[in-house]
Amino acid sequence: MKQAFVRGLLLVLGALWLLPGSALAHVGVGEVSGFATGFSHPLLGLDHLLAMVAVGLWAAQAGGRRVWIVPAAFVCVMALGAALGMLGVQVPFVEQGILASVMVLGLLIAGAARFPVAASVAVVALFALFHGHAHGTEIPPAASGVAYFAGFTVATAMLHVIGIGFGMALKQAASGRLARYAGGAIAALGVCLAFGFTL
Hints:
By secondary structure, this protein is mostly helical. The protein has one domain. 74% of the residues lie in helices and 0% in strands. The protein is built from 8 helices and no strands. The chain has helices at 2-16, 34-44, 46-62, 66-86, 94-110, 117-137, 145-172, 177-194.
């Protein structure tokens, strides 16, 4: 069962690298500045929103120290990725990584995957780097990025908390099956986004 799950994840990731890099056209699009714009970015981008909620949901589903360590790790590495983006450091496969985060996190929830804490942190840290880099490259050179940075960081943390609350509630319902269904729905939405379907 576990081997089939891992093979499925690898197949999804392999297919993603074949998609065009401009699938969602995040990087360098639009004029952004200020706390409100930074705050709204994760809320208005469906891929970001789904991934942030999924991090919290997966952390709650796995339980233990992961409930706070996994989201905290995401926020910290996202900040690093944003700094790299602001400095103009290139990170390959950013768009594919963002899409992968939605699908893979959804599949992890659907499969009720429970990894050691370090492995769980490694998974979300990889995706956080992509999300953070996308945020960082969208800060215009003329604008002060501090307020924008604070905005998307607060919004990300808020979405993690929502995901944790959602996960805790679903964990108690129907022996955790509802959380797994939610993960499947997130993964399915990730596939829709990857292939350009809009809701």
